[in-house]
């Protein structure tokens, strides 16, 4: 959702004496007439072009004049404009499909599950299957304070995980919800999720005007992931044979069967092994083993 703050202003032909709002009192300076006056240090972020003139700031101080949009943007908000959104609700409809197993399911509670879709609200322990989420609860479960989030906006991630054992009943494949904040919490020039845009126009007297709109929002990104498994006799046999072959167990098993359980085992044994007399003379050619 988005909430907006609107400010209107124009380019003043007489320039803007109140343009410097972020200054602190500085040392003595001189205006264009050469008079020594107290001045306000402008620093960075001056919303306009400095003209080089010193003009009255208040009863005791003078300030550096700028040429720009007047009045300048006021980037402070006493009351966050999105506080009422804390009790708004969000309905998420999601489905998962595993085509290999011909399985498909939605996150909506089926009839007879005991969950009334029109009245339930998500709770991780009491109502973990309800797809209606209160925005304040989403922010809290993501570890955020909603009033602070409403002041600057933000991006929250709603993760829906489907990890299913399809050997179990269809009803046992259930979604799991988790929450996190996605945008950076580090100090940045423009923290949160907000942006500015303006509409420009010209008055009949030729002066330029604009309506500056600063929009704040809380964006929700729904991230869905899943995995499923099911027992199958053919993949099991293939994997078992491949495992035995990779470690040489297949050869050992074949030798055991041929030497002990098949007809002609004695002939196979005679061809595989060779008996060596005490004089060391071989009675056959081929492979042989020494008995010690």
TrEMBL record:
Pfam families documented for this protein: P2X_receptor
Reaction(s) this enzyme catalyzes, per UniProt: Ca(2+)(in) = Ca(2+)(out)
Major subcellular location class: membrane
Localization of this protein: Cell membrane
GO-annotated biological processes: calcium ion transmembrane transport; response to ATP
Family under the similarity heading: Belongs to the P2X receptor family.
Gene name of this polypeptide: P2RX3
Protein name listed in UniProt: Purinergic receptor P2X 3
Keyword vocabulary terms for this entry: Cell membrane, Disulfide bond, Glycoprotein, Ion channel, Ion transport, Ligand-gated ion channel, Membrane, Receptor, Transmembrane, Transmembrane helix, Transport
Topology within the bilayer: Multi-pass membrane protein
GO CC annotation, single: postsynapse
Gene Ontology MF term list: ATP binding; extracellularly ATP-gated monoatomic cation channel activity; purinergic nucleotide receptor activity
TM ranges: 241-262
């Amino acid at each position: 959702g988005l909430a907006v703050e609107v400010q209107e202003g124009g380019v003043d032909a007489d320039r803007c004496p109140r343009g410097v709002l972020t200054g602190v009192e500085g040392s003595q300076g001189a205006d264009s007439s050469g008079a020594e006056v107290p001045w306000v240090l402008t620093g960075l972020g001056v919303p306009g072009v400095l003209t080089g003139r010193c003009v009255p700031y208040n009863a005791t101080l003078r300030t550096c004049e700028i040429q720009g949009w007047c009045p300048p943007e006021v980037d402070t908000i006493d009351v966050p404009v999105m506080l009422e959104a804390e009790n708004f609700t969000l309905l998420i409809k999601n489905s998962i499909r595993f085509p290999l197993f011909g399985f498909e399911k939605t996150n909506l509670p089926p009839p007879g599950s005991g969950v009334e879709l029109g009245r339930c609200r998500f709770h991780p322990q009491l109502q973990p299957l309800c797809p209606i989420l209160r925005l304040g609860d989403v922010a809290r479960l993501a570890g955020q304070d909603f009033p602070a989030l409403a002041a600057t906006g933000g991006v929250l991630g709603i993760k829906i995980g489907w990890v299913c054992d399809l050997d179990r009943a269809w009803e046992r494949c259930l979604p799991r919800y988790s929450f996190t904040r996605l945008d950076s919490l580090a100090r940045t020039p423009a923290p949160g999720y907000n942006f500015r845009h303006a509409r420009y126009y010209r008055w009949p007297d030729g002066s330029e005007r604009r309506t500056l709109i600063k929009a704040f929002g809380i964006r929700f990104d729904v991230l869905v992931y899943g995995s499923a498994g099911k027992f199958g006799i053919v993949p099991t046999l293939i994997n078992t044979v491949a495992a035995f072959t990779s470690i040489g167990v297949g050869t050992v098993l074949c030798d055991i069967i041929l030497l002990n359980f098949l007809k002609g085992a004695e002939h196979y044994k005679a061809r595989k092994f060779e008996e060596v007399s005490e004089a060391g003379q071989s009675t056959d050619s081929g492979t042989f083993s020494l008995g010690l």
